[in-house]
Specification:
- It contains 15 helices and 23 strands.
- The chain is of the alpha/beta class and 490 residues long.
- Helix 14 links the parallel strand 19 and strand 20.
- It starts with a strand and ends in a 22-residue tail after the last strand.
């Protein structure tokens, strides 16, 4: 059985931790690897390597840094099938689906790194009095990148480009529930030693990394509870933090939509990757005029998300990441049923190997139920019938979360009204729309810190101004001659 190592200063290194964690394949329930639980010594070594590499990396011309990142992106693309299979083995994502997200993440890495070529790392402003101000954006130094288990490699690639292209060095700590593909990623990155470092483990690695005195920026994606702890620790140290936390994303379905097409879209948003996406559709508000037809269509659409072989072509639905996550999902369903919800399809743990859970549609739900108030992170589609589109918007907005939201409507006024939902991203008629130009910041308990477009570079750099006054003009004195001084020619 393979035992994973840290990658520090360009070298694969055994952990100082004396404890190890099992990595279990959620499809077969077999232990496929072990990883260190993590230790402060591991973190100190990784941060030290990043500090040592920072000066030389930051001194490189921006174009050189971008070229190195782009070259790594090319190598990663050559191994995308292998990385997708590793993600399938460690967290159950079907290979074809994993490859689709990996392709998107590699494209994002290239595009976000290229943005550095036009980003204003230096600006010179001239003022009417003859003075000038020079604004330089310096890298923050060492960034800690802590990523979640649901998109092991894409989440690293999505953040890495701006951090590195801006001149920072990075310590990556992936989730202990899915470190395998990320470890392989580090074998593909061809960057100077210490520029990117990998430290493995659970909170025994995460906490000392967040609290390390030489970490200037923490980029964290994970649960609200863990994010609050990261934010508090970073605030105590006066270190910058970007937090993308949980979501309970709503969908509002208007009366004028194509019912069958919209049901297909909602099924995809609720069930793809077994509902294990931060922006999965977890609350669905449907106009009463089409509610009955929509529920029937969604139940029918859910049948396409059958529990099966994640290696099969076109597979979109795998197991949940582990038994713990399946227990949370099933508890939410049981709680809803005990409070009066109706299961239209799914809702039972299957009698089979693996941590599978079926695509589940619930009706007669309300805000007394966990499935409507807490992040489920599973293939559950709870439906609330609303009398008007406005009521749908109101209920969609009634949550502490504010990551993303989706609205389906053909009414231009309703399209405009969709922006009233307090969320970082609102999609109209297309879930997961937009590209690298998208700029957003989570609202409420879903996090803080703007990302996307140039905002990622704003977060990865620290602006500093140097003001240069105009040379003082000497006033003539009474003894001064008005005759010009002329140098003798030779």
């Amino acid at each position: 059985m393979k035992t994973l190592q840290n990658h520090i200063g360009g070298t694969w290194t055994d952990s100082h931790s004396g404890s190890f964690l099992d990595l279990v394949n959620p499809t077969t329930e077999e232990t496929i690897a072990q990883l260190p639980a993590g230790s402060p010594d591991d973190v100190d070594q990784a941060v030290g390597a990043a500090v040592a590499a920072h000066t030389a990396w930051a001194a490189l011309p921006v174009a050189d840094r971008v070229a190195r990142i782009q070259a790594s992106a090319g190598r990663i693309a050559e191994h995308a099938d292998e990385l997708a299979e590793l993600e399938y083995r460690e967290m159950g994502k079907p290979v074809g689906l994993g490859r689709m997200f990996l392709d998107g993440a590699i494209a994002t890495l290239k595009a976000s790194a290229a943005e550095a070529l036009s980003y204003p790392f230096e600006e010179n402003l001239s003022l009417p009095d003859g003075s000038r101000t020079r604004i330089l954006r310096h890298p923050v130094g060492v960034a800690a990148l802590i990523t979640p288990w649901n998109f092991p490699v894409p989440m690293v690639l999505g953040a890495l480009g701006p951090l590195l292209a801006a001149g920072n060095t990075v310590v990556v700590k992936p989730s202990e529930r899915s470190p395998l593909a990320t470890a392989r990623l580090f074998e593909l990155l061809d960057l100077p030693a210490g520029v990117v470092n990998l430290v493995l483990g659970d909170a025994r690695a995460g906490k000392p990394l967040v609290g390390h005195e030489h970490v200037g920026l923490v980029h964290f994606t994970g649960s609200v509870a863990a994010g609050r702890q990261v934010g508090a620790e970073s605030g105590e140290l006066l270190h910058r933090a970007i937090l993308e936390l949980g979501g309970k994303d709503p969908v509002v379905v208007d009366a004028d939509v194509d019912v069958a097409a919209t049901a297909q879209a909602v099924a995809f948003g609720a069930f793809v990757n077994t509902g294990q996406i931060c922006t999965s559709m977890e609350r669905i508000y449907v106009h009463q005029d089409i509610a009955e037809a929509f529920v029937d269509a969604l139940v029918e659409a859910s049948q396409a998300y059958a529990m099966g072989d994640g290696l099969a072509e076109g597979a979109m639905f795998g197991p949940l990441v582990d038994e713990r996550q399946r227990s949370i999902v099933h508890h939410h369903v049981q709680d809803a049923v005990s409070r009066g919800a109706t299961v239209r399809t799914g809702g039972q743990i299957p009698d089979r190997l693996g941590f599978f859970y079926p695509a589940t549609v619930l009706t007669n739900v309300d805000d007394t139920m966990l499935v409507m108030t807490e992040e489920t992170f599973g293939p559950i589609a709870p439906i609330v019938v609303v009398p008007t589109f406005e009521e749908g918007l109101k209920q969609a907005s009634g949550t502490e979360f504010g990551l993303a939201a989706t609205v389906f409507t053909q009414n231009p006024k309703h399209m405009d009204a969709a922006s009233r939902i307090p969320a970082g991203v609102v999609w109209v008629n297309q879930w997961q729309g937009g590209g690298p130009e998208r700029l957003y910041e989570p609202a409420g308990a879903s996090g803080m810190g703007a990302t996307g477009s140039s905002a990622a570079y704003d977060a990865a750099t620290r602006p500093a101004s140097t003001h240069i006054a105009a040379a003082p003009v000497q006033e003539p004195t009474a003894t001064a001659t008005a005759e010009p001084v002329v140098e003798a020619s030779r």
